[in-house]
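thread: overnight batch results

M.L. [08:02]
morning all. the overnight job finished for the chain we discussed friday. pasting input first so we're all looking at the same thing
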Amino acid sequence: MRLGLSTRLTLAMVLLLLVAQVVMLVAFARAQQSAGGAWRAPVPTRIAAAAEALDRTPSGERDALLVAMNGDSTRFFIADGIPAGYREGRGLLPDLYEGYAGPLRGRDPKVLVPEVRRQYRPALSGRRTAAYAFSVALADGQRLVVAPGVGQRRRSIATAILLLNLLVCFAAAFLAWRTIRGATRGLEAIALASDRFAQDLSAPPMVAGGSAEARQMAAAFNRMRGEIRRLMRDRMTMLAAAAHDLKTLLTRLRLRVGLIDDPDQRAAGDRDIALMTALIEDVLIVARGEERPPALGPVDVAALLREIVADRQAQGQAVTAGRMDDGPVTADIAALRRIVENLIENAVTYAGSAEVEFTHEATGWRLRVIDHGPGLSPDFAPRAFEPFARGEESRSRATGGAGLGLSICRSLAAQMKMTLTLERTPSGGLTVCLSDSQGS
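M.L. [08:03]
and the structure it wrote out:
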């Protein structure tokens, strides 16, 4: 399925934001890696050396020694017992540091964990800490505490900033989608207006609204709509005038044919005049198109079809009625009759017989005219509904009509918001299906 313009633009925007986030994440990971990654307690020998140095240092000079030992990754400080914000750890983590007991030679090593569990929002001050710590006893009873340094807390801040950046990314993607969706809504509106106008030339003009570009586009569409309607009116006026003059000439010609003494020639002249009259009427129906609003009302289609089939059978034509479901249909009865008559005439002319059926299905109702003739050639099928298109190219009225039958049927069906389709009869031939547009 092809994605819409707004969806494609939004996906492109989101993809760019995600790529930017991935680049930032990779850079952040490399920075973390270069900074030492997760904090680890120093090796036991370093802690033992620090404790021995503090034992040998007078209490007044210990602060200077601690400043010298501290770094970005690890912080050394002295506390009386367990420092504030920590508690002695129990369970698996202390067991992992049992190896510290040997090198520390009885300094009672302890693993300290934060009193409050770590949060996604790092605490920079107070009693909350960012990770566990390590504690050993000094000779004077105080304890040396080894804890994460400032650098570790800075990395926690960077993690929080990264998460915030991801939230901003999603918010920006949502706002971009809303903006792009609003910008492309005008294109959808003109597509819908074009479809309505293609189905009904009397459809209302497009409503102008939204941005300046959308209003400009709506105004241009309405100007085009008005020009097309004007051209259609001019065409109809011209054809109506030509039809009036032709009918006047045909009336005179009919009077002159009536003066012919030879009955065969007079009958032939009458047939030609009748064919010319029918052709003029067909051309007017096609040209009128959407100009004549249909008189819609409930129609008993099954009863109408039985009546038409009975009339055709009375004329000696091989027309039969198949399945006939009861139920009214909203239609113009005159237009519906003209459609069925044209389709039956085509089937009888080209296939010698026709079968008519009317069914109600889950997707809507269907009216089918079925024949078992030669059907349509693959080359002719795409243009079967075009005016004056004929599968038989001789243009002889003895071998077919003027090529307006299917065009007239489609025009009348469009007026009633119905759909006319051509299908291949399973056993060979052509099936023309008329259906309601909602069920198609």
